[in-house]
Amino acid sequence: MRCERCDGEVNERYRFCPWCAAPLRTKLVEHFAAHPLIERQTVALRVSRYLTDQRHTRFSIWNADGAAAAISLDEVEAARLSRFIGAGEHAVGKSGPGLRASAQALITELKSVARR
Ligand SMILES: [Zn+2]
């Protein structure tokens, strides 16, 4: 198939054109599994990105009977959510005990080498 924007040859399974980055589908869907130890009835979060004129991202909560609730966010709010989740992961990585322990071990090793 060919990209509608740049006319480049693209594989049907691609979501975006590899030549000009144009979306090749108008709806992208991903499923995220619920936390198994916290959620008892909810099985998944489905996130659907609609790349149409009225761009939005729809979040729907699924249990065994089907969709239990849903909400759509506009592009600004979806981007803000993305930054919120990304910022949390970044903060944990920076101040987590694993990194601090590794840094302390490195300092100890460097002091040991300096004494030789
Ligand atoms: Zn293209």
Bin the strand percentage. 25-35%
Strand line-up in the sheet with most strands: 1-2-3-4
Which residues sit in consecutive blocks of at least 5 with pLDDT less than 50? none
Total helical elements = 2
For the secondary structure, the number of strands is 4
Oligomer: single chain
The succession of helices and strands, N to C, reads: EEEEHH
Largest sheet: 4 strands, antiparallel
Structural class category: alpha+beta
Distance between the termini: 66 Å
Question: Gist?
Answer:
By secondary structure, this protein is of the alpha+beta class.
Topology (SSEs and partners):
Layout: E1 27-33, E2 42-50, E3 56-63, E4 66-74, H1 75-95, H2 97-115
Antiparallel strand pairs: 1-2, 2-3, 3-4
The chain binds zinc ion (ZN).
Plain-language structure description:
This protein has 116 residues and is α+β, with helices and mostly antiparallel strands. It has a domain at 41-115. Helices cover 34% and strands 28% of the residues. It has helices spanning 75-95, 97-115, and strands at 27-33, 42-50, 56-63, 66-74. Strands 1-2-3-4 form a 4-stranded antiparallel beta sheet. The chain is flat, with a radius of gyration of 22 Å. The mean pLDDT is 85. Zinc ion binds at residues 3, 5-6, 8, 17, 19-20, 22.
